[in-house]
Hints:
By secondary structure, chain B is mainly alpha-helical.
Amino acid sequence: MSAVEPALTLRGDARVRRRRIVNRLAESAATIAALAALAVLGIVIFSVAKRGGGELSWGFLTEDLPTFGQTGGGIAPLIVGSAILVGIATAIALPLGVLTALFLSEFAPRRLSAAIQLTIDLMNGLPSVIIGIFVFGLLVYGHTQSGYAGGFALSIVMLPLIARSTQEVLRLVPRAQREAALALGVSRWRIVVGIVLPSALGGILTGTVLAIARAAGETAPLLFTTSIFVNQITSDVRHAMPNIPVQIFIWSESPDPEDHKRAWASAFVLIMFVLVTSLLARLALARTRRKLSR
Amino acid sequence: MRVTFQEELDQLEANLQEEGALVLRVLRGALNALAQRDVELADEVISFDDDVDRLYVQIQQEIESLLARQTPVAIDLRLVLALLHVNLHLERMADYSVTIAKLTKLVADVEGDPALLQSLQEMGERAEEMIRVALDSLANRDLQAAESLVDLDELIDRSNRRFVERVVEIVAEPGLREWVLRMVLVSRTLERIGDHAVDIGEQVAYLLTAEFREFTDASHPENA
Amino acid sequence: MPPMRPVDVAERREASPETREPVFEIQGLTARYGTNVAIKDVNLEISRNLITAVIGPSGCGKSTFIRCLNRMNDEIPSFDHDGQILYHGIDLYGDGVDSVEVRRRIGMVFQKPNPFPKTIYDNVAWAPRVLGLKQGLDERVEQALRGAALWDEVKDRLKKSALSLSGGQQQRLCIARAIAIEPEVLLLDEPASALDPIATASIEELMHSLKEDYTLVIVTHNMQQAARVADRTAFFSLDVDESGARAGVLVEYDETTKIFTAPSDKRTEDYVTGRFG
């Protein structure tokens, strides 16, 4: 080693120090941004909880809606009604969504698959108010509002979500397993039923739950299709069904401060439902991902 | 593991031992033909050598194929290389036996000297014994037996010395000169057979010790 | 050291190659992906109950070739071919030939073991069940696992997940899965390249016993493996024509011993001696 060259050290010089400072700045900025996003969510939950938590009680959840001017009462009809509407929507969107995803993943030729994929993405981006007007024109205009119409409208919201998440899980099923099954002389459909679907089932379920969480809170489609309803629990789907989001809207427009409180409380119930189901669903999805990629 | 490969190796060795058995028969035939001045037997011996040659070529090809396909290493490699050399030594021994048979035919009409013939038979028996010991040492992986071949070779040398003494005694006798000359060649040939048997022993030692060394070196007899 | 086992020379049964009937007759096979020619004008015959190896450098079309034999290339939209592949005289790509039926008779084992995420039993039993071979399923599974030299190791844990097996065991499970539907031919695409040396040796031993009941074609980039295992070897190489287009061609096809001791073509010799490229 020549005496002129400086001895090799692994310590930093000015360049390295500058690099370190830039690193730290970037890290801090990213952390602050993430915290800001969390803060927004936190503020929303907090303010809803503060204003609505007080109204919350077991009676609130189980009694019928109060008639005009009455105090007390509960949102039981709303819960039942929302459940039925979402139930109808799931019954439509789940099979259609899964089948669409299967078709795209296993059977579609390239060009058709691209077209369908585009359609689903567009559906996903449809403003919910457009969905509402469309179903209004299709099923309500000239007839009456009904649970069918509401459920149908919600299914349009759910379909692309289910299709997308199903697609994602199907993609996780290794191609090697499909190949192995093909090489055994098994037909395409049998492979789907016997190998692909069983592996993807968990993911399909959680994707559906996420879609349900989303649909439970959609207001605009229901405004057009099932917004003029009675105050009792009803399961007659041919008429408009009571539901949480529309009722929140109605109560918030009311002059009665009691109604405002009820609105906040219902919003709290709704947000809790969405939060809890979303969280559980995402945890389950992560587990499915880990299982499939082993 | 590699059951098939092991079976191939076993088969190869079995073929080689078979060749060894043939060589012993060829040698015994040549010795008998010499003792009894039996020209027909000598001819049989000469044609029997073809069988040995056929086996020699077959074993050679089997070794080539095995080396190419199985890429043996370590002890397997040493075994295959040892078998390759032993194959050659056996084939040479058979050729030498044919030489004895041919020499027998050339002077079959001469009665010869009984004492000389006796020496030659003794040398032949020593050679047979050495071949047997060599083949057994390979079959039993017996290093001591392999190394004992040096001492057995010593016995052939002793018989040979007695032979030479007798030759000196009778070489002047008229009518025997050509016969004696041929018999000297026979004794030389038998000595060579013994040398090849020692070589087989060296291959066995190589197989077992992974070291190749000559048991006796003509220029360094003290290394024996 | 134990004395040597006597092996009876007469007992070695080996029919001369000329008397074996061909299972595949490949005539003028050219395979393309779009405009890319993968293999060009391949002619060869594959005989019954032998192991035929396909060797050659990367990209010379070995995998393409073997995947033509069970129509797995049909899955690739841009695939097209000229020439014929006759299976017992029937053109595999002929009109009315169903690719699913083809694959029932010509099975395949892949490079990376790919057992289904099911139990060991179900891995072997699924395809027969689905294909209607429901009778005697237990016996079928046991036979297949025995045939793959795996039965003794798994007979007490058939209900455990297949993913709990080691790599070598998983690959043998894939072989058991393939032979459970009783194919005639087994195609093996680099079956041991993802395995450690001991597992590789067990697969090679297995192939020797499998060839008594099946016809095997194996693609391998490890030519020593081909030398150890195969009865016949086909050497593919890349051919560059005047326009610069590259395609795989069959250079030499012969008894394995000949390929590795005295190949006829210099390209073959360059490859097996490692002087290639």
